[in-house]
Automatic annotation (TrEMBL):
Residues 67-225 form the DDH domain. Keywords: Exonuclease, Hydrolase, Nuclease. The gene is recJ. This is Single-stranded-DNA-specific exonuclease RecJ. The keyword Transmembrane does not apply. It comes from Wohlfahrtiimonas larvae. GO terms for molecular function: exonuclease activity. InterPro entries: DDH_dom, DHH_sf, DHHA1_dom, RecJ, RecJ_OB, SSDNA_exonuclease_RecJ. Residues 459-562 form the RecJ OB domain. Belongs to the RecJ family. The keyword Glycoprotein does not apply. Coiled coil: none annotated. Residues 351-446 form the DHHA1 domain.
């Protein structure tokens, strides 16, 4: 592991906080305008390919009161996309509108042929996909054969063949000139709805005064964008910050309000980290273990009581998800331990399967294993008696979807279906092909791994003793929409160890002393207990400043992300 301090790339002075300015100067920003969160600075919907064509189709469906069906996805991005589309189209005047979410176990991902067959009885005139559809070539061809219009709104990478939809809105289409390919599904849905609003005004169906203000629904856009871990480029930062500021001020829908309550988060000081690690997992748990309709209904209801009911169900789902995940993670580590004993080394690419594993949490377990061993990882569970469903997570330098494409090209009968992007991908294959896939994965990664730099942790440097304040921690938490490609501030110091305790056989609680002072700091290192050595008196830590609140009292706490034992 190599720890490297980020190099300043600008002289930006945005804040009265010296520490915040220091961090921003290390974020590859060109000037102060890169930190502007005005909605006037958003990219125009007219620059997003397919947006205006989709708007014409959707506006016509609203005006003529056609039957509209939204087909979503079972993750947070898909849920927020569905809720956003349902809410806003109704405000636009659509009266005959419904949604369908595929069942993870029965239907697979997105608009599939089997899902299409199950919705034909409802006889929709128009299907709008959100956060899916770009790979639904067969299903959309069949829908068109039945006389159904289809608009695809998606952000996933397209394959070589595009579906024959009436309109496709996707910032990642080839030859796209839209300047933010990082939009997620709910972002694409938001842009499509902006174009629909403009079209309805142009047609005289709405006026500037009567048309709903779409900014009121940026809370949903922020939630989906943060949860989907897309890069927070300038456009996404604006969407997220606008949405999260509305949530902090209490200008949010009943469902998000209830999710905040059940998770115990401080609404007025809500951070992107709170959303990513405390709010979005509650919604995700529904799609993983039960039915994402619970999550969507939570986001659709305007009743505070119903919202609290759904939020509590989501909380319970998430507790169950955590239990399953812990069990699966322990089993995978036991399997990996046997691999090490047998071969004296891990494979270059990890692929694991057990008949008892739950399909709903394979992505989370793949993330845990990947982080633990810093290797591309696929975790598989049974889809049925013959097929396995796999979810993969990658490391920097290995594009997972391209890797799967390479394997599928050499072994055309091995992988039945695959998709994804650089850091995450999914696939379906026959059980009988699993061992061959393990070997092919290992060989492919082995050929790539030697050109990749060792794992690097970037920090914003060391802090002086005067920097360790609750005020600095509070400013850094909420000043910016931190996330992918715009990382939350992290620092790097050597500390003396005053005390160390193991919590729940898993976590490490430390009392640390800064070498410049006798002042001590409380620190917590989640999931680091197994790496701790008794008697350690000096450590080098990569950490974030955090405010710990307990029984109404606030104190400074360090959240340790990486820890190294310093030699005496």
């Amino acid at each position: 592991m190599i720890i490297i301090e980020r190099v300043p790339s600008s002289n930006i002075e945005l804040s009265t906080s010296h520490l915040l300015n220091r961090v921003l100067q290390r974020r590859q920003l060109k000037d102060v305008s890169d930190c502007s969160f005005s909605l006037k600075d958003l990219l125009s919907p007219s620059s997003l390919q397919g947006c205006e064509s989709a708007a014409v189709i959707i506006a016509n469906a609203i005006i003529t009161q056609q039957k509209i069906l939204i087909v979503g996805d079972y993750d947070v991005d898909g849920a927020t996309s569905t809720a956003l589309m349902m809410r806003v189209l109704k405000l636009f005047g659509a009266e005959n509108i419904a949604y369908r979410i595929p069942n993870r176990m029965l239907d697979g991902y997105g608009l599939t042929v089997s899902l299409l067959e199950s919705i034909l009885d409802s006889k929709p005139n128009l299907i709008i996909t959100v956060d899916n559809g770009i790979s639904s070539v067969d299903a959309i061809a069949q829908a068109k054969a039945y006389g159904i219009n289809v608009v695809v709104t998606d952000h996933h990478l397209p394959g070589d063949v595009l579906p024959v939809a009436d309109a496709i809105v996707n910032p990642n289409l080839k030859n796209s000139r839209f300047e933010s390919s990082a939009l997620c599904g709910v972002g694409v849905a938001f842009y499509t709805l902006m174009a629909v609003r403009r079209e309805l005004i142009n047609l005289g169906y709405l006026t500037e005064k009567s048309a709903p203000n779409l900014a009121n629904y940026l809370d949903l856009v922020a939630l989906g964008t943060i949860a989907d871990l897309v890069p927070l480029d300038r456009n996404n930062r604006c969407l997220v910050q606008q949405g999260i500021e509305r949530i902090r001020r209490g200008r949010t829908i009943a469902g998000i309000q209830a999710l905040l309550e059940v998770s115990g988060k401080n609404q007025s000081e809500l951070s992107t980290t709170d959303i990513g690690f405390s709010i979005s997992p509650l919604l995700n748990a529904a799609g993983r273990l039960d039915d994402m309709r619970v999550g969507i209904e939570c986001l659709l209801t305007d009743s505070e009581d119903r919202a609290r009911y759904y939020a509590q169900r989501l909380y319970d789902f998430n507790q169950e998800r955590k239990s399953i995940e812990r069990s699966m993670t322990q089993e995978t580590e036991q399997i990996l331990a046997k691999v090490i004993l047998k071969d004296d080394e891990l494979p270059y690419g990890i692929a694991l399967y057990d008949p008892s594993w739950h399909q709903g949490v394979i992505g989370i377990v793949a993330s845990r294993v990947k982080e633990r061993f810093n290797k591309p990882t696929f975790i598989f569970a049974e889809e049925n008696d013959d097929l396995l469903k796999g979810s993969g997570r990658s490391i920097s330098g290995i594009h997972l979807r391209d890797l799967l494409d390479s394997i599928a090209t050499e072994y055309p009968d091995m992988i039945l279906q695959f998709g994804g992007h650089a850091m995450a991908a999914g696939l379906t294959l026959r059980k009988s092909e699993f061992a061959k896939f393990q070997q092919a994965l290992d060989e492919r990664v082995k050929g790539l791994i030697h050109s990749i730099d060792p794992k690097i942790i970037y920090t914003d440097g060391a802090l002086s003793i005067e920097d360790f304040t609750i005020n600095n921690a509070a400013i850094l938490r909420t000043a910016m929409p931190w996330g992918q490609s715009f990382p939350e501030p992290a620092f790097d110091n050597v500390f003396n160890v005053v005390d160390a305790k193991i919590l729940q056989n898993t976590h490490l609680k430390l009392e640390l002393k800064h070498p410049q002072s006798n002042f001590t700091l409380n620190a917590i290192a989640f999931f680091k207990a197994k790496d701790w050595q008794e008697g350690t008196d000096k450590v080098r830590c990569v950490y974030k400043l955090d405010v710990n609140e307990w029984r109404g009292k606030k104190s400074l706490q360090l959240l340790i992300e990486h820890i190294e034992i310093e030699s005496r």
